[in-house]
Amino acid sequence: MKNISKKTLEDLEFYQILSLASKKCSTEVGKKEILATEPRNLILEVEELISKTNEYFHSFEIEKQIPNHGFEDAYYEISLLSVENSKIEIEGFRKILEINEKSNTLIQFFKKNKDLFPTLHKSTSHLEIIKELPVEINKIINRFGEIKDTASEKLFSVRKQINNVRSKIGQSFGAALSTYHTSGFLDEIRETVIGNRRVLAVKSMYRRKIKGVIHGSSKTGSIIYIEPQATLMYSQELQNLVYDEKEEVDFILRKLTNFSRIYEEDLNNYSKFLTSIDITAAKAYLGREINAKKPKVSAKKELDLKKAYHPLLYLNNKEKKIPTYPQNLHFDVNNRIMVISGPNAGGKSITLKTIGLLQLMFQSGFLVPVSEESHMCVFDKILTDIGDNQSIENELSTYSYRLKNMHKFLKKCDEETLFLIDEFGTGSDPELGGALAEIFLEVFYERKSLGAITTHYSNLKLLANELPNMVNANMEFDNKNLKPTFNLVTGEAGSSFTFEVAEKNGIPRDLINKAKKKTDRGKVRFDASIAKLQKERASLNKNSKILQEASIKNKQENEKLDILNQKIKIKLEQYQKLYDKEKRMITLGNKVNNAAVKFFNSNKKRALVAELLRIVEYENSKRKTKPAAVLRKEKRNEISVKKEIEKKVENIKNEKKTIIKKSKKRFLNKYNFKEGDSVRLIDSKSVGIIEKLEKNKVIINYGSFKTKTTTDELEIV
User: Fold this and answer.
1) Does domain 296-496 have CATH number 3.40.50.300?
2) Would you say the C-alpha torsion 7, 9, 15, 17 has a positive or negative sign?
């Protein structure tokens, strides 16, 4: 965005936000791109960016976690696809396969959950799932990054011959080793490997007794390393076969590269998509750290920041475990310019930086630390004049620099502009500088720009009081303790508390009184009136707070009483039901007892059965009073509750399995495998011994055969 200068981005500490966000990226290309982020000035683009960030942010709070998007940059490998007769190496295809798989997983995930992530799903609309390329790559390259034996018939044949020759080399070398060891010609170490060849460690005095080729000696010369004659012929044959293997692998990779050329555009789109997801995720993670939210995006020129924090100040205070005070700031067509006054070190400059930095973050797709009820719009231009702006290179004073800045402001300012100026008009004679600053402010006002300035000039405070679409604001000051409260109050100008602060800092009272006499009496009275108003407002705020707290307390007590009454009502209903049930059971018992007495007296079974049937039919008739629809609904509710309970039980079982699996994996990650360890593949029963270990790749000997894998696939026995 060309309408925001680099100086403005520096003044508002935007680059520090980008630096913090870059540390949240999973990829190097993501880090580079987020550091080059520039604010956007199109509302649809801004809304799309911030919606994507907000959707990713909400994935932290729900069960639908977005799949991993980390990948290694394959820009060079993908660019080779446009070069004729080029060849991508095995590692390059591994990167391409990773990009393809990660992209396909995310495309399918967002499609399946498009109701939860509508904007992220929309960002995949131009992408198609590629199935053929990963299938072809997996046919050629195994999971360890090696060309498969079955990649071609020729390669299969060559590798089979290589294995046979190596077997013969092993047999012939073993025979020579046994013979010469028995003869006593070998050193204690017996053998070693030089240049990928097994050689005998021969005592130097016996070197002429062994036929073969010398490959070197020990530092002392006491040991000569000889490849026995019996293995030489096979070694020559092995070299030729290894060369044939290399040629065939080269041919296979070129063929696979040619197959991949048609997917160059798709792979480039995949790479850009994963990078954008990485940047979005980084913004979301930073948003969680600074307690940020998505404000409402407004098409009108309005800026309504509720409970707004400066993110860098928030993080700094959080580390120091001290509170950060939120601010409420409102700008619209009827309240375009805010003139902020008050004592030094009261937070005026931080307020300006908060407005500017949050606006830059918003227009770059970041969530911002404000209430969700806040409204933000998009500005075409953001102009700032904050901090010490002396220019040593151009030999400009602060005031000269500021006048040049004002010249730029006057050329650019319009109704699409947000301007922020700190200590407006300072650097010159207070009377003359204040008058010029007043004229500048009137121009900004006439051009309907939105903005805020900080000042100590009384004429600017008066101007804000006179113009209908301009408002005074001040940083509240505790006049008892003479300390700032960092609370912004709109509607009235603030006192600088110059003499009060001076007295607080130990300046003698007689000197302060002399200074007051030298000061224009009207200014002193004006400042004193403002200070008095601030004191009265502070007192009113205190009383209002007490009344508010009392009101809240009464409301809470009423809510407690309502809850208690509801509980009592439920209990009474339960007791009534219990009483009715007991009464019914007693009546039923009496009827049965009467029938029993009649039977006892008459001994007539038929009369007893008839009486009992009559009692049962009467009771059942009462049960049938419920409508069939009600009974069906009760049955459905019962089935629904049962299913929900079964689902919760199943979830608990799955969580338990996941915890066990993670615990097992953490244990394995901490375990340092070494040669000679007894191990087995995860989910396998066969136990083998680690024969060779290099980095995380291992060769396992099962006795009758060997296999190659990685430590991630193993568990210790």
Assistant:
1) yes
2) positive
